[in-house]
Write a structure and sequence with these properties.
It is a single chain. By secondary structure, the chain is an alpha/beta fold. It folds into two domains: about 110 residues, Enolase-like, domain 1, CATH 3.30.390; about 270 residues, TIM Barrel. The protein contains 18 helices and 17 strands. Strand 12, helix 16 and strand 13 form a beta-alpha-beta unit. The longest helix has 18 residues. The two termini are about 45 Å apart. The relative contact order is 0.14. The N terminus is likely disordered. Bound molecules: magnesium ion (MG). The site of magnesium ion has 4 residues, from loops.
């Protein structure tokens, strides 16, 4: 029995169910009891103002889609909330925050976010704060008996559109065939990974190729994949660009021009190559070219965007609106921003980014690379933001992805859309039997974490 059950109003409800009271017999009753009677269908599972965070634990899984630590936050009233720490991030990024949250009321999401957000950063380092934020919303929704989108101001759509990519082939025909299978499954927005990786072994296409005969990284302290784009000295020749165009041409001939097709993973090269490529791609009407250069080079992004009619897009590694999105949006450095709710700071911060982008005429879509809990958490922010386009679905080929959760109609991704969950919170619970199957070897599902209860430090960022 939890604290809420000790509420005297509960006793009254018990009396009510025993005595079979009707409204007629209530007219002389005290106002509290009359109120209690007329609102008896309202959820009293919880007294939200008395909620307190009591624990945080992790179930870290792999083998479904990426390696995903699932965060679970516990409360004094039996309500638990879930979120994901995104792919490639460490569970400790979330556990570190436990000491800052114990004893706090989880319903004060924005206030708690201001306490913990200083411990997040860009890319994977945003994974802890964002996963915790999502778990807090899950609790709030359950406590107040409403879906998360409702707490954000309501929804703009009942179904959220997803986009997906497919496995890459170096044979353009085969690649197009695989993409056609996505279309046949009902997806209405696509992305293809295309770039200089597809040109390796084709002579005369890439200058200073990372794996080319000059072996340019043999004396470098860091390898190509850790070298930021402007510093690789990679150039793409006309022949290289022609080859890349061929991939898109074959793809477009296969899937047609009605369906939005974005592109990603172009390779590490500088601003001039990006301009050459985006101009060459104009005739294929791509939906966007993603992460051509690192997001931090805002002015260079602006130059690319101004040089072409091919839409530009970045954002999956940016933490918080003020952490980078604001400058990019203010400068119209890209045409579309692409926050990952699991990096950007969670559900509310992602909505803030979308709203700010909307104000400035910039498109808004979601990156996602983690488990189904945060996929559906992202659906809430997508549903509640006006200018939203597409949410990334990374688990199209993972049938177990949907099995990880219960309480939702399956399949929850159908014909390229996800129905916005209407149950309280994010709208799903974990299927622990399935989660157990994928727990990282040597780890225990939701093991106690008392070692994270206390971290002594003075967190104030100013004096
Ligand atoms: Mg990407």
């Amino acid at each position: 029995m939890h604290d809420a059950d000790k509420n005297p109003r509960r006793d009254f409800l018990q009396k009510l169910s025993l005595g079979g009271l009707s409204l007629g017999t209530m007219t002389m009753a005290p106002i509290e009891e009359r109120l209690e009677y007329t609102t008896q269908k309202v959820n009293r599972y919880s007294a939200p103002s008395d909620l307190k965070i009591t624990d945080m634990r992790i179930a870290e899984i792999s083998g479904v889609v990426f390696r995903t630590p699932i965060v679970r936050i516990y409360t004094n009233q039996g309500i638990i909330g879930h979120g994901d720490v995104r792919d490639g991030a460490a569970k400790e990024y979330a556990l570190f925050l436990k000491s800052r949250l114990l004893g706090e009321n989880p319903c004060n999401v924005e206030r708690l976010f201001k306490i913990i957000s200083q411990f997040g950063h860009h890319a994977r380092q945003g994974g802890g704060v964002s996963g915790v934020e999502m778990a807090l919303w899950d609790i709030v929704g359950k406590a107040y008996n409403v879906p998360v989108y409702q707490l954000l101001g309501g929804k703009y759509r009942d179904q959220v559109r997803v986009y997906c990519d497919t496995t890459t082939s170096r044979d353009p025909q085969e690649y197009a065939k695989r993409m056609q299978e996505r279309v046949d499954k009902g997806y209405t927005a696509l992305k293809m990974d295309i770039g200089i990786g597809l040109l390796r072994d084709i002579p005369g296409t890439v200058i200073n190729a990372p794996d080319g005969k000059l072996n340019p990284y043999q004396y470098e302290y860091r390898k190509y994949n850790m070298t930021k784009h402007p510093f690789t000295g990679v150039q793409v020749t006309d022949k290289g660009i022609e080859k890349l165009c061929e991939f898109v041409e074959v793809m477009r001939n296969q899937i047609g021009y009605e369906i939005p097709m974005g592109t990603d993973h172009w390779g590490h090269f500088g601003l001039n190559e990006a301009i050459k490529i985006t101009r060459a791609m104009e005739k294929y009407n791509l939906a966007y070219t993603e992460d051509l250069i690192p997001w931090q080079y805002t002015d260079q992004w602006r130059e690319i965007t101004q040089s072409t009619t091919t839409p530009t897009q970045t954002g999956e590694d940016i933490y918080m609106l003020e952490g980078g999105f604001k400058e990019i949006i203010d400068k119209h450095a890209v045409d579309i921003v692409h926050p990952d709710p699991n990096t950007a700071g969670g559900i509310l911060e992602t909505k803030r980014i979308g709203d700010y982008a909307s104000l400035h005429g910039i498109g808004f879509m979601h990156h996602h690379a983690a488990g189904p809990v945060s996929f559906l958490g992202s659906v809430h922010s997508a549903a509640a933001t006006e200018n939203f386009l597409w949410l990334e679905h990374h688990a199209v080929d993972s049938p177990k992805f949907e099995d990880l959760v219960t309480g939702i109609e399956k399949p929850f991704v159908k014909n390229g859309y996800v129905k916005v969950p209407e149950k309280p919170g994010i709208g799903v619970e974990l299927n622990e039997d399935v989660v157990k199957e994928f727990i990282i070897k040597g780890q225990q599902m939701f093991a106690p974490t008392p070692e994270w209860n206390e971290i002594r430090a003075w967190d104030r960022l100013w004096s």
